[in-house]
Amino acid sequence: MPKLILVRHGQSQWNLENRFTGWWDVDLTEKGVAEAKDAGALMKEKGVLPTTCFTSVQTRAIKTLNLALEDMGRLWLPVAKDWRLNERHYGGLTGLNKQETRDKHGDEQVHIWRRSFDTPPPPMEPGSQYDPGADPRYEGIDVPYTESLKLTIERVLPYWESDILPVLASGETVIISAHGNSLRALVKHLSNISDEDITGLEIPTGQPIVYEFDDTMTPGERYYLKDS
Questions:
Q1: Catalytic residue numbers?
Q2: Do the Cβ atoms of 87 and 56 come closer than 8 Å?
């Protein structure tokens, strides 16, 4: 029975500082490192061991995957990295403190930017401090300047269909180490969650979520590995 494991990266420095992160590349905190290792230890304890791996091109997700694999003794597994699994691009909010942004724009406006399905934040100014456009990992990619959850889904799902699902269908146990919103996109699709309800779904850091698929590649109910 093919299994899919979803892991949101461990706590990052900007998670800790309550800042909008998006495509900016920040590292894990000490707590984030511990969360990643704990995720690996849990997978080993439960005997849910991945055989192939997918992650974004952002340090916090890659490190989370590597730390978890190291704890499982599986650093040798093949890993595909792709920008389409990146976090949602927070546009002009990138780098801002969330509470300061609420103070400036009001709770309601910030809630719309953060949690509406299809309203993106104001776009990032090209060439601004946190513009990833010149980063060599995005060479040849039409880097967005802002994204809603809807726009994030529009890049995540084609990659799921073309690259991840066929590997899963071949019988592999797949792990995806990614981000709150790219994983929200997948959970929305796999659990058939409405546009309205998905915006309220929180995905905690470092907690493996598992889907088991039947012979027709229909996913069962998702569950947290710690609860199994």
A1: 9, 87
A2: yes
pLDDT bucket at 1, cuts 50 / 70 / 90: confident
Give per-residue pLDDT as tens, 80-114: 999 999 999 999 999 999 999 999 889 999 989 98
For residue 101, what are the contacts with CB-CB under 8 A and spacing of at least 6? 20, 93, 110
pTM over 0.85: yes
Q: Does 189 score more than 90 pLDDT?
A: yes
Quickly list DSSP for the chain: --EEEEEEPPPBHHHHTTB--TTS---B-HHHHHHHHHHHHHHHHHT---SEEEE-SSHHHHHHHHHHHHHHT-TTS-EEE-GGGSPPP-GGGTT-BHHHHHHHH-HHHHHHHHH-SS-PPPPPPTT-TT-GGG-GGGTTS---S---HHHHHHHHHHHIIIIIHHHHHTT-EEEEEE-HHHHHHHHHHHHT--HHHHTT----TT--EEEEB-TT--B---EEGGG-
pLDDT tens across 35-57, in order? 999 999 999 999 999 999 999 99
- Structure tokens, 102: 């609420």
Q: In what order do the strands lie in the sheet with 52-55?
A: 79-81, 52-55, 173-178, 3-8, 209-212, 223-224
pLDDT in tens, 131-149: 998 899 999 999 999 999 9
Question: CA 5, 8, 145, 82 torsion: positive or negative?
Answer: negative
